[in-house]
Design goal:
It is a multi-pass membrane protein. The protein is built from 17 helices and two strands. By secondary structure, it is mainly alpha-helical.
């Protein structure tokens, strides 16, 4: 019962760690209120995601040495503080792109603190069911988008300021509810879990081949430097390309509603209508990501216990789904197609962030898991930054300012407003998806190479 309560608390508190993925639901409104371009708005999302990734090794080392308490408390405070200050910036309409980026860096650091602590706590609590132990907190991370976007749409429909305020107080309440039980696990695990008994070299040593005989007793065996960097590149491509879509989702929806006649006839309700569709897409993305994280965790456990092969084979699942998503992104020209795109990419992206941590724990053990996973997870930021900039610049180059007349509901006077609109539909952005399609195919071919190498090594080791 105690272990089940720990798993439930670790999973629920991880809702707070996934709030950055909702950024696409309100990024166009941020741009309009603060006067940012699409490229500047993209910088805010990338600042948050980059801090999530780059702070990973440091946070992992803190958790591996000092436990979950420091990371959980600081992470919870950082998330709530970041959204509170950003909400104030939005309400006062004080444009400062570097300040906005700084606030999202704070939120990103807090997200990593909470996420890494909850996953490590769950895996140590259930060391023999790592798939489920990883899948549940990861699923809540993925479900964050649908939970917060639905609550925000219910409490503050069409009100971005109210939605940002919701992102301040709701995570704080969840942390107060679940944080104490996660922190109390420090005492239990210090007595029940001896990391020295499962000590593994760090990734740097493993990749250089300085392995002890004990380390070879895992599903993959020792990785060569080439295999390590191929595995890292696969994560870099699959995760980075998915993050580009996540943070650009608001612009994709806005592009498909870039019809000038529609805007003129629906000018009074246009912003609310677009934001509702943006939140709907974030919900689909979040639900599918949640499902992908949970289902892939169960599949990983069943696969390992029944088939007894390396879980590298499971990477074909997210690679295929993410490839389908890139093709839909290139050819799709309606909101229904964007919904299919969000579902496919969400499930694939969620699977990546369940399967890869399991592979890391299989290869390098749990003793330094948080640090090793943080090191491996550094690279997606490279792909994310490059492709997000390409997407935003492509979008900006196709956007023009238009003047619309709107009637003031209080004075009945007609006022003129200027809106930046791209009227080209999917052509506003789809050249970016042509590039990501090629890169996803490259990632799939690298998985094929690792599978072939694993089969070759298995035949060599098999006794005659």
């Amino acid at each position: 019962m105690r272990r089940a309560a720990v798993l439930a608390s670790s999973s629920l508190i991880n809702l707070n760690a996934g709030t950055l993925y909702i950024f696409g639901a309100y990024s166009p409104q941020i741009a309009m209120q603060l006067g940012y371009t699409a490229s500047q708005t993209a910088k805010i999302g990338m600042a948050g995601q980059s801090s999530v990734i780059l702070i990973g090794p440091l946070v992992g080392k803190v958790i591996d040495i000092w436990g979950y308490t420091v990371s959980t408390v600081l992470g919870s405070l950082f998330i709530s503080l970041g959204y509170f200050l950003f909400q104030r910036q939005y309400v006062t309409a004080s444009p400062n792109i570097w300040y906005s980026c700084f606030l999202f860096v704070i939120i990103g650091v807090g997200s990593t603190c909470v996420n890494n602590a909850s996953i490590k706590c769950s895996m140590v609590t259930f060391p023999n069911q790592k798939g489920v132990a990883t899948g549940l907190p990861a699923a809540m991370y993925g479900a964050s988008g649908v939970v917060f976007s639905r609550v925000g749409a219910l409490l503050y429909p069409g009100d971005t300021a109210g939605f940002l305020y919701c992102l301040f107080y709701l995570p704080f309440f969840i942390s107060l509810l679940c944080g104490p039980l996660v922190c109390l696990c420090d005492l239990a695990h210090k007595h029940d879990y001896n990391p020295l008994s499962q000590k593994r070299p760090s990734i740097e040593l493993q990749s250089l081949g300085t392995l002890s005989p004990q380390v070879t007793r895992n599903l993959m065996g020792p990785l060569s430097p080439v295999d390590f960097w191929i595995l890292t590149t696969i994560l870099c491509l699959l995760a980075g390309l998915s993050q580009m879509y996540i943070y650009s989702l608001g612009m994709i929806v806005t592009s498909l509603y870039g019809n000038l006649d529609l805007i003129r006839t629906q000018i009074q309700t246009y912003s609310v209508m677009v934001q509702q569709h943006q939140q709907s897409q974030v919900s689909w993305l979040s639900l599918s990501s949640c499902s992908g994280r949970f289902v892939s965790g169960i599949v990983a456990d069943i696969y390992s216990s029944q088939i007894h092969k390396t879980r590298i084979y499971l990477l074909f699942l997210p690679a295929t789904l993410i490839l389908i998503a890139q093709l839909i992104g290139y050819f799709g020209s309606s909101i229904k197609m964007v919904t299919l795109d969000s579902i496919s990419l969400g499930f694939g992206y969620g699977s990546v962030y369940t399967i890869f941590p399991i592979i890391v724990s299989d290869i390098w053990g749990l003793a330094d898991f948080s640090y090793n996973w943080g090191m491996l997870n550094l690279t997606p930021v490279i792909t994310d930054i490059i492709m997000s900039y390409h997407f935003a610049n492509n979008y900006d180059s196709n956007t023009k300012p238009y003047t619309f007349e709107v009637k003031n509901s209080e004075t009945d006077e007609v006022e003129s407003i200027i809106m930046s609109v791209c009227t080209l539909g999917r052509s506003c952005y789809n050249s970016s998806f042509a590039i990501t399609t090629v890169l996803t195919i490259c990632a799939t071919l690298l998985i094929v190479y690792l599978v072939i190498e694993d089969s070759r090594k298995s035949r060599i080791k098999r006794p005659l």
